[in-house]
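Note to self: the last two entries modelled the partners one at a time, which told us nothing about the interface. This time every component goes in together.
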Amino acid sequence: SQQGEEDPQALSIQEGENATMNCSYKTSINNLQWYRQNSGRGLVHLILIRSNEREKHSGRLRVTLDTSKKSSSLLITASRAADTASYFCATARNSGNTPLVFGKGTRLSVIA
Amino acid sequence: EPEVTQTPSHQVTQMGQEVILRCVPISNHLYFYWYRQILGQKVEFLVSFYNNEISEKSEIFDDQFSVERPDGSNFTLKIRSTKLEDSAMYFCASKARGRNTEAFFGQGTRLTVV
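The predicted structure of the combined assembly is written out below.
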């Protein structure tokens, strides 16, 4: 698999349920970021977790990072229909100028 | 809140024509990027730019592509002779100095080559 592979590819849940998306990567990283993309629109930054952090929260978002397994998860609690979007993880190598490497994304559908 | 702006939002061009995609990064950012996303696929890195020069580029960024920061605000991507396979969404991004700062993306330019 390639750097920043998310699973599942698609996820459909009911409003109010929690959504969990996973991301795996292969090389060493400086940080891992999650982005959201509404259909045909731009990428919105959600959260950044550094390689020395294990868990981070932002509102209804919870991100974990396990560098030993080279994996991360994004949990959205109490999902809403407005959370319907594609979610991408992106990894950054050990440099301030390093480009992001994106995964293929998870398409989340939240049904009202 | 400061944002990255891109113009145009949609451009249709004939194969073989030159296109210039424009971006205005966030004003105090130092690192600039172009990415592209072919419909239904993942976001791919094209090029990064710092201190008025290319710092890194991918295999996609061949001789048909060029970038420029002609003044203190604009950051452009030029495709010299477009091909059908250049049809994609092109995103500009900018980032402040620091190892753990997030990249802010524009809304993208949808390029359609016919």
